[in-house]
Amino acid sequence: MSSQKDISSILISEQAIQQVLPSILVDTIVLDEDYKIIAASENVLDYTGYTNDELKNKPINFLSGGNEELFTLLKSNLAAGYFCEKRGRMLTKGNNWISVSLTGFYMGLISDLNGLIALKIKNLDKHDNINKQLHLKNLLDPLTSLRSLVNLIKERKNNDELESLIDMMTERTNKLDEHLSQLSYLPCGETSSSDAK
Question: Is the pLDDT of residue 100 over 80?
Answer without folding.
Answer: yes
